[in-house]
Amino acid sequence: MVFSGLMFLFLYFTFTLTLYYVLPRGARNPFLFIASLVFYGYGEPLLILLMVGSIAVNFAFGIALEKRREQGRSAKGLLALNVVFNLVLLGFFKYAAFFVDTLKLIPGLSALNTPDIPLPVGISFYTFQTMSYIIDVYRGKCRAQRNFVTLGTYVALFPQLIAGPIVRYVDVEHQLSHRRENWEMFNNGVKLFLVGLAKKVLIANPLGEMWSVLKDTPDTNGFLGSWVGILAFTLQIYFDFSGYSDMARGLGNMFGFSFVKNFDFPYISKSITEFWRRWHMTLGTWFREYVYIPLGGNRCKAPRHIFNLLVVWFLTGMWHGASWNFILWGVYFGILLILEKFVLHKALKALPAVFSHLYALFFIVIGWVLFEFLDITALWTYLGSMFSGPCIGETAAVYALSYLPLMLVAAVLCTPLPKRLFLRLSAMRFGWALETTAALLVLLLSTAALVGDSYNAFLYFRF
Amino acid sequence: MKQRLRYAPTAVFLAFIMVLTTLFFVLPKEAYSENEKKQLATLPDVSFDALLNGTLTEGYEEYLSHHFPFRETFVGLQSYYELFTGRGGVSEVYFGADGFLIAAESTAASEETVRTNVKNYAAFADAMGLKATLLVVPQTGYALDGQLPSNHLPYHDDRFFSAAEEECGSMTLLDVRDALCGQTDCYYKTDHHLTMDGAEVLYKAYAAAQGLVPFADYTVESFDGFYGTSYSKSGYWASAPDTIETFKSTQNDNVTVMISSNGIDTPVRYDSLFFEEHLQRMDKYPLYLNGNQGLVTIHNPDAPEGKLLVVKDSFAHSVMTLLCQHYREIVMVDLRYYSDSADTTIKELVEKHALSEVLFLYGADSLSTDSSASFKLFYDLEDALPD
Q1: Cβ burial, residue A53 (10 Å; 0-12/13-18/19+)
Q2: What are phi and psi of A69, to 5 degrees?
Q3: Helix, strand or coil for residue B93?
Q4: Among residues 198-257 of chain A, which lie with CB inside 8 Å of chain B?
Q5: Which of A25, A457, B197, B232 has the greatest CB tally within 10 Å of its CB?
Q6: B window 215-254, beta carbon within 8 A of A
Q7: What is residue A458's predicted lDDT score, i.e. its pLDDT?
Q8: Which residue from A minimizes the CA distance to B85?
Q9: Model's pTM, two decimal places?
Q10: Which of A9, A13, A14, A197 to mutate to probe the B interface, most B CBs <10 Å?
Q11: Residues of chain A by 3-state class (helix, strand, coil), percent to 5
Q12: Hey, are the CB atoms on B9 and A398 less than 8 Å from each other?
């Protein structure tokens, strides 16, 4: 199920929320666990088995690990076994076809059959969450969870299940058993959810409609048309993904949880390094905590440091999807980050702000071309169309003009200014009226958009 | 008090989702959507298999979206919101000047499809030895450029016409572009068809080409409240309706019409060209000859001897109410609705009715989007298929 659908908003959520608050405190976690499994298995009920199985295995590993640690014995072997288990699970469901396809490129192996395994929704997110739990138990940062339902609630919790943020167990350990829901938090949750809903339904979806047209016509777009297209995607993916994160955090608030922020105005960055501190922050934290630092991070000689960075960015790219273009995309950023760390950092600091913004945006946008085209030939064709050919094609011009107002609004919303202004206004005497009007408008227009079109596929579904 | 008002967004949010959810359960469900001309979804059958393969939940989602409270109001809100935020230029129906709602050219439209169709018509006419005429009706957006919003996607009627010209072989191709361009009275504002004024333009063009003297003595009746297909697609619910007219001629007083919906059903006999029960509906265009039917035969005992095969889409319906003054018998086939499994092939129709003339009459829209129907001409006549 997706948040920005009628089924979620008007049936699932209404019932889940009502029942949750009707139930006594002790029954709330079990209810959330079951409700989350329903959310997850909606459409593909068999996936519930996979999820419950994964939770059960990790539950047992957690307890076993802690026991060994308390007995003063090394738990390294158990940890390794667990990591292998989780990665095999992820690898089988997400990367098997990619792996076989790659093997087929080797002469003599071209007769292999590509397995047809449908990707279970959200598996990349919850596998990383369970791994964070086990590794933190191993490191003694948290106690193993002795209550299966509580661990299950953490892994399956529907707000963050499908597209993050990647909530680490240590961050919500206390909330899982001791949270106190309150109106203040609930009200904040509602506002955050509506911000996310508006980002997704009123901005990302329509921009996606334009991109889906221009994406397929690099030959007739003209270079300006192709730039408009990829800029639309640049905005779309930010509003889509950060909108989803906002909805997740808002929903969390409504159930008494508070999740960490996942985006912090990434497009105002002045360097790629800064961009990655502001974009999908929970993924960056995960890779830093569980891959980069264990490899030695930056506390080693330069060649090893470079190697560590490349490993992390190869994996980051691969995490985004089982296709070579994602790896290319990851390594592209890895190389840019290495260049910034070792060569460019002084120059970037000395550069006037406008140029460093342009520098960062240019490479971010080119990055989205790498990200968006699974087919490498189509990728090069599109990239080529951005730097050659006529100015703008007939169809592209009509689309560009039509979406110009929305793109301008979206661009302004990429900066912190509108948020600051809104916060200032809502702190004034009639701020509540402003907030309430905005809430009603978002609800009406989003419902209209959802009733109006069936187009509602999430970009981040292949993760 | 002030403290409580801070929670107003929460109150609005909860009230909004809970009221709409409750209304969804308690409001009566419509079975049919007149705007979309379709049966609305019914609750899916519950079964374990349907649950496992996901069709059950898909069924529920469709049911929810079809029966969502105030559904059409929300669709309208979405349309006007997009229009006012500048996206009218990429909508399916343009919000034009003077109340014109103008359908954008179909994204499926292609010159290639026009070529295929026209080749098929020409080859069929040749193989059957028929004297053939082709009439292509330009799209509203092409003819009424002045009514279009300044930002809109292009119309390719000129290209379609040139393609038809190149492929039409021995057929006579009638060009009505100049006669219709800029003629706002010839097109409906809320529908993609031609008005009776437009139909008369086609009728006169065809009559001139055949050396017939067109009749002009009619009793005109008009009916208000016609909301056509462009209106239904657009969501611009505040638009004013069209008026639909009938041109009645004493020459047609004794006409009988035989209609078979697909060429298989036993034809039903009617004594009028006009089906006034459709005046009760929003879409009144089926007033002419009862809308889309596979096989329609029009007999006019008061007309001079003469027979005509008409292969067409719905643009022909209004034209036929005029043209039947000249023909004793018109056999009208809509290939989209004429069944593959009809006992009588088109070839046999021609032979049975001893037809020697054919008129192919199509709107540029269906001529450029549907290439499958025209192959039905060659059932029983495969040797004549063009390469």
Answers
A1: exposed
A2: -60, -45
A3: strand
A4: 206, 209-210
A5: B232
A6: 235
A7: 40
A8: A405
A9: 0.89
A10: A14
A11: 75, 0, 25
A12: no
Asked if the Cβ–Cβ distance from A394 to B61 is below 8 Å, we say no
Each residue of B317-346: pLDDT tens digit? 999 999 999 999 999 999 999 988 888 899
pLDDT > 90: what percent of chain A? Answer: 60
Map tokens 């990647």 to a residue.
Answer: A166
Q: Among the residues of chain B, which ranges form H helices?
A: 2-5, 8-26, 48-53, 55-66, 71-84, 111-128, 140-143, 157-167, 177-180, 196-210, 229-234, 315-323, 346-352, 364-369
Q: Is A280 a catalytic residue?
A: no
Tell me how far CA of residue A450 lies from CA of A94, A330, B287, in angstroms: 30, 34, 35
Two tokens at A236?
Answer: 């779309």
Which pLDDT score is estimated for A302? 86
Q: Which of B259, B229, B256, B255 is nearest to B338 (CA)?
A: B259
Alpha carbon distance, N-terminus to C-terminus of chain B: 81
A343, exposed or middle or buried, with CB in 10 Å at 0-12, 13-18, 19+?
exposed
Secondary structure (3-state) at B343? coil
From the list A42, A194, A449, the residue facing B13 with the nearest CB is A194
Q: What is the dihedral of CA A277, A282, A286, A292, to 10 degrees?
A: -10
CB distance A6–B68 less than 8 Å? yes
Asked if A275 and A176 count as a contact pair (C-beta separation under 8 A), the reply is: no
Higher pLDDT, B66 or B99: B99
Which residues of chain A register pLDDT less than 50? Answer: 455-463
Chain B residues touching A398 at Cβ < 8 A? 89-90, 151-153
- Residue from the list B8, B21, B52 with its beta carbon closest to the beta carbon of A11: B21
| Cβ pair A104, A114 in contact under 8 A | yes
Chain A contact present for B280, CB below 8 A: no
Which one of the listed residues A174, A280, A320, A357 is annotated catalytic? A320
Task: Check A435 against B8: CB less than 8 A apart.
Answer: yes
Q: How many CB pairs under 8 A join A and B?
A: 126
Cβ <8 Å between B154 and A395: yes
Q: Which residues pair with B137 in a beta bridge?
A: B363
**What share of chain B has pLDDT > 90, as a percent?**
73
**pLDDT band (50, 70, 90) for residue B2:** low
A265 phi, psi to nearest 5 deg: 50, 60
A186 touches chain B (CB under 8 A): yes
| Residue A460 structure tokens | 């981040």
CB atoms under 10 Å from CB of B368, counted, come to: 28
User: If you average pLDDT over each of A102-111, A445-454, B113-122, B256-265, which comes out highest?
Assistant: B113-122
Identity of the residue numbered A304:
R
